[in-house]
Amino acid sequence: MSSNTELKSELKSELKSEIMAMPAWLRRPIGKASELSTVQQIIKQRQIHTICEEGRCPNRGECYAQKTATFLLMGPTCTRSCAFCQVDKGHAPMPIDEEEPQKVAEAVQLLGLRYVVLTSVARDDLADQGAGHFVKTIAKIREFNPGVQIEVLTPDFYGDMQRIQAIAQAKPACFNHNIETVRRLTNRVRRGAKYERSLLVLQTVKDIDSTIPTKSGLMLGHGETSAEVIETMVDLRRVGCDRLTIGQYMRPSLEHLPVQKYWTPAEFAEFAVVAQEMGFTHVRSAPLVRSSYHAGEE
Fold it and tell me: Could you tell me how many helices (H) and strands (E) the chain has, helices first?
């Protein structure tokens, strides 16, 4: 028993040391407690989830203040086990809450949100992997909140065109699917995902409706090179991806992949210039940038 306690203590000490070793530019205030509390109370009362909270996003206070939030649909447990992600993993997630679309719509209304991002855990246990639930939630939000813009950030649906088409036909303001890392590191970082499949998702959206803006994101710090990051940008532009986010990976726990490199703000700024020159219409590239960062300003 004492050995387990000592081990836990050592692990906590190791993680604390790692956090303390982070560069100064990765530390920021979490936001006003009142703004965080208001959102947290509303989502807790309705038993819904946000990736802002489940993923412990460093920008959530700022986004809440700007009247944006990212809702995590279909529960907090993911059927995949990506080695970088904070969200809980499990092969037997909770059943779908059929009232969730209305609960989310009510929360959007109460919070006075102007721009909503809908994402979800991977639900490989469902027949349509949750595509229909995205569509229902989009419809219900619009019913309660005319004029609100809705962006989706989806799993890959194993590249199934019908599932992607169902969501694209709901006309989201933006269709986001993150490629997350470079080709060489995909198997290690994104367990269960494939680099080419992610490109296919973005290509499929454009094939279905070329007017829908598409978006993807990279999380740096897994051992990628500058050349590989640029190669990934080229691949994204090749499938018509319009928007790009690039941020720094920060290790959520000792069970997750260790950080291989902290890229500097100057390096992120250089990637932003390259991306803009390639033709991305909207680029967010900085250490604390996440998928939905300033999404409503696109």
Answer: 11, 10
- For the record, the structure tokens of 249 come out as 């990976």
Section 240-255 average pLDDT: 89
Domains of the chain, by residue range, sit at 33-297
Across 68-73, average pLDDT: 82
**Cβ contacts of 230 within 8 Å, gap of 6 or more:** 271, 274
b/e for 225-243, b at 16 or more Cβ within 10 A?
eeebbeebbebbeebebbb
The contacts of residue 292 (CB under 8 Å, 6+ apart) are 51, 63, 68, 70, 117, 119, 151, 153, 176
Q: How far apart are the first and last CA of the chain?
A: 53
pLDDT in tens, 163-173: 999 999 999 99
- Pair 115, 295: CB distance under 8 Å: yes
Angle between helices 195-208 and 161-168 (to 10 degrees): 50
Residue pLDDT, tens place only, 147-206:
999 999 999 999 999 999 999 999 999 999 999 999 999 998 987 889 999 999 999 999
Longest dimension (CA), the chain: 61
CA–CA separation, 148 and 137 (whole Å) = 13
Enumerate residues 6+ apart whose C-beta is below 8 A from 242: 213, 214, 215, 280, 281, 282
CATH architecture of 33-297: Alpha-Beta Barrel (3.20)
